[in-house]
Amino acid sequence: DERLGSIDALAGQGLISADEQRQTRDRVLHEALAPLAPGERLGRIEELQRQGLVTDEEYAKLRREVLDSL
To answer: What does pTM read for this prediction?
Structure first.
C-alpha cells in the first residue's frame, strides 16, 4: 500500500512522531487487510513483507491476528 510509504516519509521528515507513525501504519494495514478472507490476508501479509513494506514485528503481529481470528 503506497500509504505506508507516505506515512514513513512524514515520520522521516519529523512531521509525525514515532508513536503516530506506528499507530497510523497499524490502522492502514488493518484497513487494507480487513475485506480479505483469512487465506488472502496471509498471502497479502507475505507479499508486503517480501516488498519490505512491513517490519518483522508487524508481520508477526498481523499473522498472529489472522490465525487468532480462525
So the answer is: 0.83
